[in-house]
Structure formats: structure tokens, C-alpha cells
Amino acid sequence: MTSSVVHFWRLLKWGRTLARHGALRGIERDPNTPRPVRRLARIARFGARVPEEPRYADAFQAIGPAAIKLGQTLATRPDLIGESAARDLLRLQDALPPLPFEAIRAQMEASFGRPLDTLFAEIEEKPIGAASIAQVHRAVTTDGRKVAVKVLRPGIETEFFRAIETYEWAAAQIETMGGEAARLRPRLVIDTFKRWTMRELDLRREGASASELAEGMQAEPDFMVPAIDWERTTGKVLTLEWIDGIKLSDRESLIAAGHDVSALGGKLVRAFLRQAIAEGFFHADMHQGNLFALSDGRIAAIDFGIMGRIDRRARVWLAEILYGLITGNYKRVAEIHFEAGYVPAHHNVAEFATALRAVGEPMRGLPVKDMSIGMMLDSLFNITRDFDMQTQPHLLLLQKTMVMVEGVATGLDPDINLWDTAAPFVREWIRTELGPEAAVADRLIEDFRTLSRLPQLVRNIERHFPTPGGAPPAPPLREIERIRIGGIRYIIVAVFSGALGAAATLLLFR
Question: Is the pLDDT of residue 280 over 60?
């Protein structure tokens, strides 16, 4: 087990890099920062030339691959690091210098357990992308298909495990300080980061996520997920269908190729809503570099390492919250927060409804196209501190993805009306999930499940009562039980007889 001294030294070294990029200024100035953490930030900053504008993304990129992934996790937590820092961390795109192909070839052959020429007719040595965890090469399979091959960087697991160990130690120290630090649950942040990282370090799980997303998006023909080549996929190598398209970040090329950028923005919004609201399983890293426009007008996504999942109950709550904020029913929104357990019961529902009104009313006066779902959720989460709301990682990840999708959509078409685009889908889903038909369907499903358990219940009864007549005869009473029951019987008879005798005496002497 790594000693506390080693953890402290690593934090100091990383803190020094953060300080040189001005990334510790917010921690020092925040009154909610625990005093020991503020002191450590000052030590790390001592003697460094601090820029006027913090460069958070650049700082995490300078520290290394594990820090890049941590920065992407922190980008989902504006409540923890502040809005400006979260926005800047969204710039993290995983761009790193590539490794020599000899190292990649050795990694692939060790993973497959056989020479590459038995699987691929051709592999381009120059990668088309190099990220913090893996790099991607274009290839052609032995049966002539064009594919993209994603390969883990050799030794990356050791580097990540070492960093995560220190992150966990630091989070535990901070959380024990109590107060605001405990409410923000830093250990949960690191646990979320760890789960994401474990998924990304096993490329079979990324392939499984892509496969699951493809199944859920069959009802959305304008969104395409590349097929996984499972024969050429292992824990360290992922092979998937080649995507030949234009990145959504290249608006000029999209227009030159004849794409309707406004239509692309609408397709992206609807695809995200289908994933997040209807299916409850969404691509949580939908930045412009991971999205392509195909020649037939469809949108294709890549990189399925970070995925979000929301259960049906949370989706219903979220839909009601959004609908309530839009329609001004703040009391119902407040009640949902209490019902969901987001706000502790000792707070006042009416007070919370007033705080929500302060979020919703300014937006209700805006033109529809200027109302942002991401902005609305951002304002909503800003009131969490006053009402001791513990953070909900799945909702924060959803918020981050909403903001990202909005950014891509407005980059394609600055005049896109996101509410008009989303409204038909959201309205239909709310009617389906919250309307009377949904209530009847839920009741029928619940009753059917109850009825389906009856045969097993009967079998359990027969197992306990195996005689033909049903329940077996009661076993003979033990002597002590007969005495006890007999004694009670005699007492009852004696009391009853005494009562009759007393009544007769009273009658005789009247």
C-alpha cells in the first residue's frame, strides 16, 4: 500500500503544475474550501508565475493521461469546481503525441496471441488519432473491410491505477473535513471517475456499450453507431466499422459538401433525447470531434468510453422537473425534489419552490429560441448548496452532455430553436410516461407480475404442507402445554362461576 507521504508528494507535484496554469486560484479564493486544502494550494503556488486567466484544460493536459480523464470527469461537476472551470475543462479532447507503431504492433500481437497478418491485410502505421488512453489506426481486414482499430497505450493501466490510488486518498482526506466538502461527496466523484476509467481500460466493455446503444437507436434512423468486429476485439484492442464522414466541427466543409447544417443540428438533438429520455442510456461524450456527418445525411458517433445511464423513475422525475419549470408549476417541481430524496426532508417545500421560481421566472420571459435546457439545469443546480442537496452524478453527467449537445447544435445552426426541435419528442414521452395510459399499463404490468408469482407461491405452500388434505394435523401437545392450557380453562370457569354466584347473591338480598 502506498504511504501517505508518497500521496502527499504526488499531490504537491501535480498542484505545482496546476498553479503554473492559474488553476488553483479558484480553490484559494473559495470560502468553502477547507483550510488545509487552501494551505496546500498556497504551498504549491509559492514562487510560480500565475497567469491572469486560469487555463484548467491546459494544466490537466500537462500533468498527463490520468489527469486528462479526471478533468473530463470534473467537467461534469460545476457545483464542485465552479462554472468557468467546468466550461474550460470541456476543451479536453485527449490529444497526445502518438506512440511508435512498433510498440502498438507488439501490444496488438500480445493481445491477439497471433501475428497481425492473420487478421488484417493492411494497417496504416500513422495513427489517425492519439488520445490519453489509446490511439486509433486505419486498417483493412483480411476479408476486405475498412475498419478503425483502437489500441490501448502499453502500460497505461499501471499509470492510471497509481493516479487513482492517490485521488482516492485525497478525496477521503477532504471528505473527513466535513462541511461543504462532505456535501459535495468528493469520494463519489473519484468513484465515478474510477468506474469510467475501468470501462475505458477494457475495450470489450466499450464495444458492448456501442452495441447496446446501436440497439436502442434503431428507432432513430438518422443516427448511426458503427458495428463492432468482435473477432478482432479484445480487452486491449477494439476494431469497429470505418466511418467515412465530415466532423461536425468543420461547418464550412459540411456546407461545401451540400449538408443542411440546420437539419443536422435537429437530428443531433432528437438523437440525444432518444438516448437520454426514451432509452435511459446515452453517449456522454458527444463533443464535435466524436460526431460525423455521413454522405447520406445521417450522423455517426464514435468513442463510447463514457456512457450515462438513468433509470426510468429518475427519467420521469427529470421530465416532470423540466415540464414544471417550463410551465411555472414550481410547487410540483419542489415536491418532486422531496419525493425523489434530492432535498432532505427537514427543509420547507414552499421555501424550495420560491428558490425554484427565482430560477424559472427569468427564463420564462425570454424568447423560446434563447431558452437553454443546459442553462436551466445549470441554474437549478446552483441552488443546491442552500438546501443541502447531495449531488446526483447521473443528473450532472446528463447536464454536461446537454450543454455539449447544445453547443454542437448551435455551432451548426446559431438560429436553431432547440425547444421547437425537442418539444414534440419530449411532449410525447411525457404523455406516454405520465399520462393515464401509462398508469393503466404500469398497473397491468404489476398485476401480471403478481399473478405470474402465484404458481411458485402454491408450490412453496405445498412444500411446507405436503399432506393430501392440505395442512398437516397439529402435533400432540407436550405435557407442559396441556397443563398450561388446562389451567387457563379452569381459571376462566372459576371466574365465570364466581361472577354468576355474585350476581345471584345480589338478586337474593335486594
Answer: yes
In sequence order, the 6+-apart residues with CB closer than 8 A to the CB of 161 are: none
The C-alpha angle 318, 345, 385, rounded to 5 degrees, equals 70
Whether 225 contacts 217, CB under 8 Å: yes
Among positive and negative, which fits the CA dihedral 360, 365, 366, 369?
A: positive
Is residue 276 within 8 A of residue 308, CB to CB? The reply is yes
- Amino acid identity, position 333: V
Exposed e or buried b per residue across 292-323, where buried means at least 16 C-beta atoms within 10 angstroms of its C-beta: bbeeeebbbbbbbbbbbbbeeebbbbbbbbbb
CA–CA gap between residue 21 and residue 52 (Å, rounded): 9
Lowest mean pLDDT among 70-74, 120-124, 263-267: 70-74
Task: Identify the active-site residue in 79, 88, 229, 285.
Answer: 285
- Answer yes or no: 386 catalytic: no
Residue 70 and residue 165: Cα distance in Å, rounded?
13
Dig out the grid coordinates for 92 from the structure.
479536453
The per-residue pLDDT for range 335-345, each reduced to its tens digit, is 887 887 778 88
pTM, two decimal places: 0.69
Instruction: State phi, psi for 246 to the nearest 5 degrees.
Output: -110, 130
Whether residue 255 contacts residue 190, with contact meaning beta carbons closer than 8 Å, is answered with no
